[in-house]
Amino acid sequence: MSGVAKRLLPLLDRVLVKKADAITTTKGGIVIPDKAAAKVLKATVVAVGPGARNKNGDHIPLSVKVGDNVLLPEYGGTKVEIEENQEYHLFRESDILAKLEN
User: E strands within 1-102?
Assistant: First the structure.
């Protein structure tokens, strides 16, 4: 993932995240169909922008950093495909709901 962060640097208060993989089977081995699977709302921060600017032109630091696990809203964000079969999403920091403790 570090190669992705070097190629795509988000601007201002935007955050690039990689969503966690969806659960496709239960603990008992039952396969869950795509239509019945819940949306993935957890993600890992891959890259962050420098932060929004205040009236003086100074950057306001972001509250999330690379490697943080975050909770995302059900809808929103911009899908970005940088590598083959790798899907990332761009969110504004204000759209991220929470940081998850490890």
Answer: 14-19, 42-48, 69-71, 78-83, 86-92, 98-100
Tell me the whole-structure pTM to 2 decimals.
0.75
Q: What distance in Å separates the CA atoms of residue 98 and residue 41, rounded to the nearest whole number?
A: 11
Q: How far is CA 34 from the centre of its chain?
A: 21
Report the DSSP beta bridge partners of residue 96.
none
Question: What span, in angstroms and rounded, lies between the C-alpha atoms of 71 and 19?
Answer: 10
Of 101, 75, 102, 78, give the one whose Cα is nearest residue 91: 78
* Nearest-angstrom CA–CA distance, 17 and 10: 11
What is the C-alpha separation between 60 and 13, in angstroms, rounded? 8
Q: CB-based burial of residue 38 (10 Å sphere; 0-12 exposed, 13-18 middle, 19+ buried)?
A: exposed
pLDDT in tens, 60-91: 888 888 889 999 988 888 888 877 778 888 99
Tokens of 2: 């570090």
